[in-house]
Amino acid sequence: PILISSCIEELEKRGICYLGLYRVSGVYAAINKLKIMFDEVGQLATSSVHIITGVIKLFFRELPDSLIPISRYHTFINSRSYMEPDEQSEHLIREVGRLPICNLKTLTFLLNHLNRVANQKECNSMTLGNLATIFGPNLFRQP
């Protein structure tokens, strides 16, 4: 989605070395205002990084179905039944490949960005675990 790509592009242009990036919440009214303005004019207004990250989180939270569809929840959870980590990985890779193409592209784009954020954990304190805690519930909802 263009909103997500625009927000991520803006974040990465400014730099992702903001302490607590994605963990520090912006003011909800400002987040909602920026999202509405983007919907109306197709451009991001000048905002703090925490407002922009808030828009990204809000977008995924407001989707009618999560990026990994609720209907696929049990299929993904079943990967835990595989005893060997390699088998778990193979199962997950196979299942991700079966996602609707739009979901797959969005998930890939987002995860690549989050990986770049985690690679800067020394300056932003955002490890993969921290990011998973923040994004997991909105990308992968329980039925």
Any overview of this molecule?
With 143 residues, this protein is mostly helical. It has helices at 2-14, 28-41, 49-62, 73-77, 85-97, 101-118, 121-124, 128-139. Helix 1 packs antiparallel against helix 3. The longest helix is centred in the last third of the chain and has 18 residues, at 101-118. One of its GO terms (biological process) is signal transduction.
Summarize the structure.
This protein has 143 residues and is mainly alpha-helical. It has helices at 2-14, 28-41, 49-62, 73-77, 85-97, 101-118, 121-124, 128-139.
Secondary structure topology:
Layout: H1 2-14, H2 28-41, H3 49-62, H4 73-77, H5 85-97, H6 101-118, H7 121-124, H8 128-139
Helix pairs in contact: 1-3, 2-3
**Which geometry do the CA atoms define?**
globular
The overall pLDDT average reads 92
Sheet-strand content, in percent, reads under 5%
Low-pLDDT windows of residues: none
Gross CATH architecture of the domain at 2-62 and 120-137: Orthogonal Bundle
Task: Kindly report the CATH topology of the domain at 2-62 and 120-137.
Answer: Phosphatidylinositol 3-kinase, Chain A
SS field, number of helical segments: 8
Largest sheet, if any?
A: none
Q: What is the H/E string?
A: HHHHHHHH
Radius of gyration from CA coordinates = 16 Å
Quaternary structure classification? single chain
Number of strands: 0
The secondary-structure class comes to mainly alpha
CATH homologous superfamily identity of the domain at 2-62 and 120-137:
Rho GTPase activation protein
Helix content percent band = 55-70%
- By CATH reckoning, the class of the domain at 2-62 and 120-137 would read Mainly Alpha
Gap between N and C termini, in Å?
A: 24 Å
